[in-house]
Design a protein that fits this description.
Number of helices: 4
Helix content: 55-70%
Number of strands: 2
Distance between the termini: 45 Å
Radius of gyration: 24 Å
Strand content: 5-15%
Oligomer: single chain
Structural class: mainly alpha
Order of helices and strands: HEEHHH
Strand order of the largest sheet: 1-2
Length: 179
């Protein structure tokens, strides 16, 4: 028994309205944070308890931006953006059976799932290791790298492979028609 297949056309407005709503909410949260509790640059001493630090001539310091309630703002932003990530994962799962030549829903689902995994592993570690500046920087950089690299590879590499194969088939078709 064939499934009822229905053609749905998605317009620019269908994409742009949710984007501007999500962007607007992020913008409002960040604006409220900037207006009511701006970040201030502070430099604090770092007490290093290594064996070699007993004869230090200068005391090491660490510079960072802090605000009184930054944890709350960051928490709200993380919860909101993680909710968007989960919503997009659900929507990409619902689109898994799109059967067109240019279907990207599988790769989008995998890239969103990879992003969710990178955030689920990286963010708690970033929170736990924020006292060590080097580890904090490396971990934050790796989380950003895993998030962006996965999206770029999983979205664009299949497109490049498909384009390469289509061009190769087109070239072979032209060669066979000339002979």
């Amino acid at each position: 028994m064939p499934r009822n297949e229905q053609r749905i056309q998605i317009t620019q407005q269908d994409i742009l309205v949710p984007f501007f709503i999500f962007f607007g909410i992020d913008f409002i949260i960040l604006s409220i944070w900037t207006i009511f509790d701006p970040l201030q640059w502070v430099r604090v001493p770092v007490h290093n308890e290594d064996l070699y630090s007993h004869n230090m001539v200068e005391e090491s310091t660490l510079g960072l931006c802090v605000s009184d309630n930054s944890g709350w703002y960051i928490g709200v932003l993380l919860v909101f953006n993680f909710a968007i990530l989960l919503l997009s994962l659900v929507q990409s799962y619902e689109c898994r059976r799109i059967t067109t030549e240019y279907s990207e829903s599988t790769w989008i689902t995998v890239s969103i799932a990879t992003t969710a995994q990178a955030w689920a592993i990286g963010l708690p570690l970033v929170i736990l290791l924020d006292h060590n500046p080097r580890t904090f920087f490396i971990l934050k950089s790796c989380t950003v790298l895993c998030t962006t690299f996965a999206i770029l590879l999983l979205i664009f590499v299949p497109k490049m492979i498909y384009t390469y194969e289509a061009l190769k088939e087109n070239k072979q078709t032209k060669l066979s028609t000339k002979s």
